[in-house]
Amino acid sequence: MPGPDFIDMEKVSKYENFLNEVLRVDLKTTLDRRDELYNEIAQYIELQTIMGKLSAATGGGEDDGDIGLGTKLKTRVDIGSNFYVQAEIPSTKTFTVDIGCGIWLQMTGKDALKFCDKKLFFLNARADELTQKELSIKAQIKMVLEGLREIQKIVTKEPTPRNEL
């Protein structure tokens, strides 16, 4: 039987492998997915802002559904790497919105705003789920690290209670 100073290196190796090959990879994947969601959220917020500015500029309102009032609009479009070209939109009566899975749908301004609100609600809920998953993975990482410290008999300072006066 091994002595009290024996460290099971096979067990340590398994824990380290689990930590590095599973938990840290899961954490990175979760954070990347959440970042993609935040980018999509930013795009929908930008769409709402643009439609609001267009409504204010043309005198349309959300109540009547005619945000753009069918007016012609001149603008600049970023085609990548901050390279802009001039564009002319013949009518702003309808908006073409990406509703997901590569499907684009023409909507009135009022419908597009409703869609943005619903999509933002869904995306924020999904981002919250990924944040909870991130916290869970971080807790698992902390637990595995504590297990490794215990197996390797690494002595750490006792944490001082924060609520002590």
Description:
Helices cover 56% and strands 15% of the residues. It contains two helices and four strands. The protein has helices at 9-58, 109-151, and strands spanning 73-78, 84-89, 94-100, 103-108. The strands form two sheets. The protein has a two-stranded antiparallel ribbon with strand order 1-2. Strands 3-4 form a two-stranded antiparallel sheet. A hairpin with a 5-residue loop joins strand 1 (73-78) and strand 2 (84-89). 8% of the residues are buried. The mean pLDDT is 83.
Give keywords:
2 helices, 165 residues, two-stranded antiparallel ribbon
Please indicate the percent range of residues in DSSP E strands (runs of 2 or more).
15-25%
Q: Identify the overall geometry.
A: elongated
User: Within the largest sheet, what's the order of strands?
Assistant: 1-2
Total helical segments: 2
Let me know the number of strands: 4
For the termini, the CA-CA separation is 47 Å
Instruction: Give the mean pLDDT.
Output: 83
Poorly predicted spans: none
Question: Would you state the CATH class?
Answer: Mainly Alpha
The main sheet comes to:
2 strands, antiparallel
Q: How does CATH name the architecture? A: Orthogonal Bundle
**Classification by helices and strands:** alpha+beta
